[in-house]
């Protein structure tokens, strides 16, 4: 059997190997610091185990899988603490998330912040008991009877909805038993630092027709130091919250008349348009033609594309002249119709079609979150139709574009290859070829990547880009998807050099991803302190009194004539107040105009970071700003 070692290498062992033979190839320090060993998807101890054919790997908290295991265990630990404090609680679900864990609870008592502290203390007390976490396999009937006796209605409903042949497992910590697939830690002792973060409402199964439950969010770590660092990052993240800065900088707003539909203000449109106009130019230089396709298309199209079978729960529908139509959730079928509107030769390929396509997707109200999760957004979509022999080069070009885009804003990024999901369209042979093509491209580029099993699109595997922002958070952003299914569904063809009709390959590519979401990421990444080329107001001109207003206007006009975005603050307010307000608005440069400036013809320049420069020539100031804009300089 093949066993994966922690350094990423693999080693072959005879079936029936004892754990000590494996651990000889793994540092004891790593074993001591690990959460345990995952064997065939289950976390096991390392004492006196004998392994037959299996997938064995040591898991640490630093691993994505390790975090999920610890946080999932922490959610059960929280439920156990709540059961001890509030025995009448009915438990719904308690998963790990990308940023921690939560549990949904049905309880007449309404939780407040003081309750969280009591639950947290109880969790710490239980964790110190070093309780084993036991896995229990049970029949469907026994599981239903177990939870019925304890009046745990939500668990009974979940079990009844499982397939008849589903293996039922439960996990036990002390007196708390929960329906769960696992895996979990071996005991509670690894959970050393806990923080319960917030209380929210959540409809059972996300359906507003169901009962509103209470949801408690939390985070847990192996060490107190990790929690302290997390709290510090969280405080910084709150300062950078794009919803808060969106209001302060007058960029966008959300309204109950259109939940999940953002309203962009003039400042927000300046930011958006500068971003998109620059990206338009980049795409044009890289051989893309821009198209625009309708927002509403008939239902038959979505059946043909496969979205009806795989995505209809997220779609909006309407009728036109008595016929059924859908509001598009994705842009690809429209691009395909453009491709199919004329005949193509192999000499025409690759054809690169870009679109800033507005899409609508039905998101649950509880999932909506500023610009990060909305019901309508614009994708910087592109679809490339090419020969199979051109796929690798086109993927290379897309990766280079992604690198150029993200480095422009100072983002580090990591790459993930997402493979065939359970709900896929097409045949295994074409999927295997598509996955191999993307994998080969990444490896030939010598790019490190991780595999995200089963997270591909229903029509093809994908390369995903995860950005790291200024405070270390990661965001899934761009994607490159290889699709052999839609060309088949829509009978896409080109004429090859022998005069025969053949099927092209199709690549989907979005690098900003959702423009709205990318803007939200930028707002938080820069904490509203945008690079000069993106700033809604680049220069604030501040006369010290009405006496110098005319000269200040002259300076503002000169800057405006050079294409700079300038605002004259001629209000009858104190200079200090106007400077502080400009700083709150994150304006890059402030020019304070008084008698000295009018007499000398020189400028006093105050930068956003508080630095001041006196006696600056106007032409030199303009030239330096133009250079900063041209280079897209990041100053902070």
TrEMBL record:
A GO biological process held by the record: threonyl-tRNA aminoacylation
Catalytic reaction list: tRNA(Thr) + L-threonine + ATP = L-threonyl-tRNA(Thr) + AMP + diphosphate + H(+)
Family recorded in the similarity comment: Belongs to the class-II aminoacyl-tRNA synthetase family.
PANTHER family reported for this sequence: THREONINE--TRNA LIGASE, CHLOROPLASTIC_MITOCHONDRIAL 2 (PTHR11451:SF44), THREONINE-TRNA LIGASE (PTHR11451)
EC number: 6.1.1.3
Name of the protein this chain belongs to: Threonine--tRNA ligase
HAMAP family reported for this sequence: Thr_tRNA_synth (MF_00184)
Gene Ontology molecular function, alphabetical: ATP binding; catalytic activity, acting on a protein; metal ion binding; threonine-tRNA ligase activity; transferase activity; tRNA binding
Quaternary assembly: Homodimer.
Domain TGS: 1-60
InterPro entries for the chain: aa-tRNA-synt_IIb, aa-tRNA-synth_II, aa-tRNA-synth_II/BPL/LPL, Anticodon-bd, Anticodon-bd_dom_sf, Beta-grasp_dom_sf, TGS, TGS-like
Organism of provenance: Peptoniphilus porci
């Amino acid at each position: 059997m093949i066993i994966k070692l922690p350094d990423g290498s693999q080693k072959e062992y005879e079936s029936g190997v004892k754990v000590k033979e494996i651990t000889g190839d793994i540092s004891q320090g790593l074993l001591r610091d690990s959460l345990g060993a995952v064997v065939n998807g289950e976390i096991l101890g390392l004492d006196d185990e004998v392994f037959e054919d299996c997938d064995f790997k040591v898991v640490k908290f630093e691993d994505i899988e390790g975090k999920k295991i610890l946080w999932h265990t922490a959610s059960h630990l929280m439920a156990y603490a709540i059961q001890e404090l509030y025995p009448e609680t009915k438990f719904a679900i308690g998963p790990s998330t990308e940023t921690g864990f939560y549990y949904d609870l049905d309880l007449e008592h309404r939780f407040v912040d003081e309750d969280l502290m009591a639950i947290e203390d109880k969790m710490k007390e239980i964790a110190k008991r070093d309780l084993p976490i036991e896995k229990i396999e049970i029949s469907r009937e026994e599981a239903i009877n177990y939870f019925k006796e304890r009046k745990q209605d939500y668990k009974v409903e979940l079990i009844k909805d499982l397939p008849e042949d589903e293996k039922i497992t439960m996990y036990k910590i002390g007196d708390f038993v929960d329906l769960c697939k696992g895996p979990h830690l071996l005991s509670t002792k690894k959970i050393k630092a806990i923080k319960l973060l917030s209380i929210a409402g959540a409809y059972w199964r996300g359906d507003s027709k169901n009962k509103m439950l209470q949801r408690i969010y939390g985070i847990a770590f192996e060490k107190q130091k990790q929690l302290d660092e997390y709290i510090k990052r969280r405080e910084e993240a709150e300062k950078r919250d794009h919803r808060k800065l969106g209001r302060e900088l007058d960029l966008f707003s959300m309204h109950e008349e259109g939940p999940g539909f953002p309203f962009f203000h003039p400042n927000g449109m300046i930011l958006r348009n500068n971003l998109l106009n620059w990206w338009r130019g980049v795409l044009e230089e890289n051989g893309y033609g821009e198209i625009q396709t309708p927002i509403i298309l008939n239902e038959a199209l979505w059946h043909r594309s496969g979205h009806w079978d795989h995505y209809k729960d997220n779609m909006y529908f309407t009728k036109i002249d008595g016929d059924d139509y859908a509001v598009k959730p994705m842009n690809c079928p429209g691009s395909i119709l453009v491709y199919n509107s004329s005949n193509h030769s192999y000499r025409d390929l690759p054809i690169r079609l870009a679109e800033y396509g507005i899409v609508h997707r039905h998101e649950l109200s509880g999932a909506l979150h500023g610009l990060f999760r909305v019901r309508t957004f614009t994708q910087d979509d592109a679809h490339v139709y090419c020969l199979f022999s051109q796929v690798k080069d086109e993927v290379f070009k897309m990766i280079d574009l992604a690198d150029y885009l993200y480095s422009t804003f100072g983002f580090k990024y990591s790459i993930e290859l997402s493979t065939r999901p359970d709900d896929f369209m097409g045949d295994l042979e074409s999927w295997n070829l598509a996955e191999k093509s993307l994998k080969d491209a990444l490896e030939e580029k010598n790019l490190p990547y991780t595999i995200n099993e089963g997270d591909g699109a229903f029509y093809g595997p994908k390369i995903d880009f995860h950005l790291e922002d200024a405070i270390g958070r990661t965001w899934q952003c761009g994607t490159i998807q290889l699709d052999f299914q839609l060309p088949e569904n829509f009978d896409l063809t080109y004429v090859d050099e022998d005069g025969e009709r053949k099927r092209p390959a199709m690549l989907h590519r979005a690098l900003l991803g959702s423009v709205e979401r990318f803007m939200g990421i930028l707002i938080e990444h820069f904490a509203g302190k945008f690079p000069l080329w993106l700033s809604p107001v680049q220069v604030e001109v501040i006369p010290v009194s009405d006496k110098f207003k005319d000269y200040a206007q002259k300076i503002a006009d000169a800057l405006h004539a050079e294409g700079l975005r300038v605002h004259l603050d001629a209000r009858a307010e104190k200079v200090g107040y106007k400077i502080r307000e400009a700083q709150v608005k994150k304006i890059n440069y402030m020019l304070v105009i008084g008698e000295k400036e009018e007499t000398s013809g020189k400028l006093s320049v105050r930068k956003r970071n508080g630095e001041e420069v006196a006696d600056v020539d106007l032409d030199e100031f303009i030239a330096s700003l133009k250079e900063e804009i041209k280079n897209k300089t990041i100053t902070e």
